[in-house]
Amino acid sequence: MDLLPLTIALDAKLVCAPPGWEKINIETVFASDLMSDVLMSDRDELLLITSLSTEQSIRSAGIVGSEAVVIANNKTVTEGMIALAKEQDIALFCTRFPKYESCVRLGRVLER
Fold it and tell me: Domain of 17: which CATH number?
């Protein structure tokens, strides 16, 4: 599924993204604050949802090839996170919703 409807479901604010981000295909949603768990992922076309608002979350997303990261719980996105996301062509968003509610909202969209 394209990334745009997923971000609309989360009422997510675009922090930074590569050109054409709206058409990025997402097949898997992974929600975790434990980056060691994220690093175990072997899925393609991944959207990471986390409330870990650190550069480590962007680094981990880059290692596993995540297309996009959503920072949940209305956490602040740092300049370092933005710089890393730009460097790695990762779309970066933030949402006011907690991880659980974000997953429920995305599940409803993906069921369609």
Answer: 3.40.1390.20
Determine the structural domain holding residue 90 and report its residue range: 3-111
Domain count, the chain: 1
| Secondary structure element (H or E) that encloses residue 7, with its range | helix 3-9
Mean pLDDT in the chain? 96
Global pTM reads 0.95
Q: Position of tokens 């997923």? A: 6
Antiparallel, parallel or unpaired: β 91-94 and 13-16: antiparallel
Query: Do the beta carbons of residue 53 and residue 78 sit within 8 Å?
Result: yes
CA dist., res. 33 & res. 50, Å (int):
5
The tens digit of pLDDT for each residue in 12-63 reads: 999 999 999 999 999 999 999 999 999 999 888 999 999 999 999 999 999 9
CA dist list (Å): 80 to 50, 62, 95: 16, 14, 18
